Amino acid sequence: MNIGFEAKRVFHNKTGLGNYSRDLVRMIATKFPETSLFLYNPKKAKKSIFTYYNKNIVERNPKTKFKNYWRQKGVVKDLLKDKIEIFHGLSGEIPSGLKKNNIKSVVTIHDLIFMRYPNLYSFFDRKIHFYKFKKAAQNADMVIAISEQTKKDIIQYLKIDANKIQVVYQGCQPVFKTKIPEDQLETVKKKYLLPDQFVLNVGTIEARKNALTIVKAIQNIDTTLVLIGKETEYAKEIHEHITSHSLQHKVRFLKGIDSFELATIYQLATVFIYPSLFEGFGIPIIEALYSKIPVITTNSGVFPEAAGPNSIYINPTNANELATKIQFLLENPEKRKEIAEKGWHFVQQFNDDVIANRLMEIYTSLLA
Asked: Residue 87: is it exposed, middle or buried by C-beta count within 10 angstroms (0-12/13-18/19+)?
């Protein structure tokens, strides 16, 4: 089987959609080495962030200066040359002309946050996102939603038939599933001057992720909060709150952390907190569950779907409720251990083999 992938983010996006795209290609390549995978990348990356797992992966670049046109339409000529049977748009887009050339298509839609929270996006960004996602979902032979929550949103906002949508969960990188040796844990702990006990939050520091609520929750708790992620304008609000309440000694900001060090910090953490207002899925939750640390997260939307029945849930806007839950877990190590163990068993449904098999079922069903 020859499968083509819209691969811009495989080579150029270090987080989020890039991680999803690289993981999906890795899972298919390793689980099904008899398939040929073609990655259509509009521009060669200056520094590679993608690993070629075996010889069944080929990168294709355009022989034109009009790279945007190539992504949207011109790439079809290359797909025909490569005898592509299925093209998978990994981030809400597929090129025009696939049906006309008898190439089956799949598109992954991660979330429709721009519809649920329009105030977080500019007018033009909302219009562009809606146009691209709607067009792709209508034209694709199959739509993959990364959660049941996203499937509901696709039906509600894009008016796509439920029978055309399949839910295939995301996984995470293998490094988060690996037990880090004690000496390496100690090395990373010393490098970043981490305390013996701390609570952790991972993700872009933006309004939707709601990290300020965590800062408010720990004000009167004897713990340290470690925030890992790129800072946006919203981070200024957090810094101002920290300064005005003299919390500088209780909050640490880290960024530019590689995957191994991030996995290590997860395993060093005491509690993982993720009070996001809305997500398409929430990969940091999965990473935390694989790392065997208890999770506190939002009590609605996709979060119970991602975190399972044994995580702890809160109203994400209620700092007092969050503080109570944090204090409870910090004071009860046995309960932390129990929640972490049950969470680890729950997260096995997001293993590579499960996801790869599900994807291949979809691909083969389209060619049947």
From this structure: buried
The reported pTM is 0.87
Residue in the block written with tokens 């519809």: 115
Among candidate residues 149, 23, 152, 20, the one with its CA nearest the CA of residue 91: 20
Whose tokens are 């339409």? That residue is 73
Residues 6+ apart with CB under 8 A from 144: 106, 107, 108, 109, 165, 166, 167, 168, 359, 362
Q: What is the mean pLDDT of each run of 10 residues along the chain (368 residues)?
A: 93 84 92 93 84 81 88 92 96 93 96 88 91 95 95 95 95 90 96 96 93 96 95 94 95 92 97 93 94 96 93 96 97 96 95 94 94
In angstroms, rounded to a whole number, what is the distance separating the alpha carbons of residues 329 and 271?
8
For 107, half-sphere exposure in the C-beta direction (CA atoms, 13 angstrom radius) is 23
8 and 45 Cβ atoms separated by less than 8 Å: no
Largest Cα–Cα distance of the chain, in whole Å? 64
Whole-angstrom distance, CA of residue 31 vs CA of residue 26: 8
Residues 6+ apart with CB under 8 A from 316: 210, 213, 275, 276, 277, 298, 299, 322
Helix (H) / strand (E) element for 87: namely strand 86-89
**Alpha helices, DSSP H, located in the chain:** 8-12, 16-31, 67-69, 75-81, 113-116, 123-139, 148-158, 182-191, 211-217, 234-244, 259-268, 283-290, 303-307, 319-331, 333-346, 352-367
Which 3 state secondary structure label does DSSP give 106?
strand
